[in-house]
Amino acid sequence: MSLNVIFNSADPGIYNIKTHAEGPAGALPLTPEMLVDSPSGNIFGLTLNAGMGWDPNRLLGTEVLILGTQGGIRAEDGRPIALGYHTGHWEIGLQMRAAAETIAKENGVPFAAYVSDPCDGRSQGTTGMFDSLPYRNDAAMVFRRLIRSLPTRKAVIGVATCDKGLPAMMIALAATHHLPTIIVPGGATLPPTHGEDAGKIQTIGARFANQELSLKEAAELGCRACASPGGGCQFLGTAGTSQVVAEGLGMALPHSALAPSGQEVWLDIARQSARAALLMQLKGLTTKDIITDKAIENAMTVHAAFGGSTNLLLHIPAIAYAAGCKAPTVEQWMAINRKVPRLVSVLPNGPDYHPTVRAFMAGGVPEVMLHLRKLGLLHEDVLTVTGETLGDNLDVWERSERRRRFRELLVACDGVQPDEVIMSPEQAKARSLTSTITFPSGNIAPEGSVIKSTAIDASVVDEQGIYRHTGKAKVFTSEKAGIRAIKHGEIQAGDMMVVMGGGPSGTGMEETYQLTSALKHLSYGKFVSLLTDARFSGVSTGACIGHIGPEALAGGPIGKLRDGDIIEMIIDRNQLVGSINFIGTEGHPLSPEEGAVELANRPLHPELRAHPDLPDDTRLWAALQAVSGGTWAGCIYDTDKILDVINAGLKALKENNSN
């Protein structure tokens, strides 16, 4: 490229210029009342709509805004012109189009806008992860601004798939209290007929470094892991769990989560969702009628029954806050996980590692809900986006042809019985499925922590369902140092890995899936435990404890641990209680109480610091969410609390300057 090429183009077509045109034919459907009483923006909006080619005679239909997270540029035949960040947003423009065409057929006026989303898998182990969780708040804010910037919209449809885009969309729609809103889940990618899922495939580097995989195997498996070009990953990570939670909240149509991306049933979900949005508008049904305290509890119950991602502990409270509902407490999470059995056997929890598309074929969320309502664990009187109650939805689902046909297709296509994927409580108990999440505390985590205890390898759990590990700490002040140690053979069975500095103030609360996935898929990994103040990918498994609070850079005890410290971890997978305690050093044992005193008197680790590449944007996010209640409140922005702190600071500065 040179200036000569730019200013001396060989293409004569660039000089074929028009400087004026006739404009659209016809006339705007204006009335005297509109001209006198309507804001000028509303009338100018009609001019813009006609300018974009919409038939002027159809301008007064119901306006519906379709928001999506689409990324990349896709040719009509599906070829990539410009790649997206991930499969999860690559195809959803097709769903948006299907929804828009349906609205137009119903004499509505569809609008579309986009806020694309990042890929947590792509940014694992990179500084891109520092923007992952903060993106959620930013995207939700932009979605809300887009909704408000189209004042004439009468309903909003959100189309999203993956780890941060879908939670951001749910938060934005939950805050849109006085409009009908609906979520269209972006579905799941297919697993390869012969190969590995997109979760396990992220460990090829660690397995190759530990001589458990050849270069040829790594290259071939890595190429085929995403067997279809669209949809979220094939496991019940944050993407899949978020889809399930959207349906559990009543924000998405029954049997819409985890559908195979790009296929006719997936497109039909978008069409039916568009019709539902128009029906909600006709009935005067709005978001505040759907998302209630009872709906939040239903979503938590469904989350527990599926064995969902621990990241939803950050997202469901944020959705509740946006909706004006009560944010769930740790005590509520514990109570729900104690009484709700896990019923779903999929990746990464097992015991059989079915891809999530099989959960859809087996009946998905409504099938799980049929079991839950027999146990009396659901609020069946909540309204949903169908315009009917949850109980009514389940009555129809139970006797529907759709239910029967898809369950039959699972047997025909994969030779898998539906009840092997979605089990009855009796079957689940017989297969020893345990509840999802435990919240350990102790002198290392006085504010609490989280472990997906159902994913601890059953072979290292005793007959009472208790995992015990006492070992010497190997301390790392970055995830990079931790994964380097794994790849270079510096971690052995029996080690207790401690990765500090990964909370909001250090890295934007990065995911450490590099570490947890390596431990899951290395032969010795089930004998290694991990403690961190960072968070985990929804597909993380094993004896891995995250969300430890306070975080190290806030003075938390985890930031005071040293190599060689003895740590005791006890996790009861049945009673869902656990503890993580520093109990001294070799030759100087301490009780947990004495250990707490010792940690209180220690300085922070000398190498502990915020990552030098932490963006200012993320530093600001970390400060704002900390003032608003931190991670246990869902990393929200509580405007009133933030303003109180700012005003108090301004007052203190003013008083200090006057002295």
Summarize the helices and strands and which ones pair or pack.
Elements: H1 3-7, H2 32-37, H3 40-51, E1 63-68, E2 73-74, E3 80-82, H4 87-90, H5 92-105, E4 109-114, H6 120-123, H7 132-148, E5 155-160, H8 165-174, E6 181-185, H9 204-209, H10 215-224, H11 238-248, H12 264-283, H13 287-290, H14 293-306, H15 312-323, H16 330-339, H17 356-361, H18 364-374, H19 390-398, H20 401-414, H21 418-421, H22 425-430, E7 448-451, E8 466-476, H23 479-487, E9 496-499, H24 504-507, H25 513-521, E10 529-532, E11 544-549, E12 565-572, E13 577-585, E14 588-589, H26 592-601, H27 616-627, H28 639-658
Helix pairs in contact: 5-12, 7-8, 8-15, 11-14, 14-18, 18-19
Overall description:
This protein has 659 residues and is of the alpha/beta class. Helix content is 41%, strand content 12%. The chain has 28 helices and 14 strands. The strands form 3 sheets. The chain has an 8-stranded mixed sheet with strand order 7-11-10-9-8-12-13-14. It has a 4-stranded parallel sheet with strand order 4-1-5-6, with helices on both faces. Strands 2-3 form a two-stranded antiparallel ribbon. A hairpin with a 4-residue loop joins strand 12 (565-572) and strand 13. Helix 5 crosses helix 12 (264-283). It starts with a helix and ends with a helix.
Question: Keywords for this structure?
Answer:
659 residues; alpha/beta; 28 helices; globular
Percent range for helical residues?
Answer: 40-55%
Compute the gyration radius: what is it? 26 Å
Mean pLDDT: 95
Distance between the termini: 62 Å
Main β-sheet: number of strands, strand sense, barrel status? 8 strands, mixed
Shape: globular
User: Largest beta sheet: what is the strand line-up?
Assistant: 7-11-10-9-8-12-13-14
Strand content: 5-15%
Global structural class: alpha/beta
The tally of beta strands, per DSSP, is: 14
H/I helix tally: 28
Keywords: Lyase
Protein name: YjhG/YagF family D-xylonate dehydratase
Pfam families: ILV_EDD_C, ILVD_EDD_N
Domain Dihydroxy-acid/6-phosphogluconate dehydratase C-terminal: 432-576
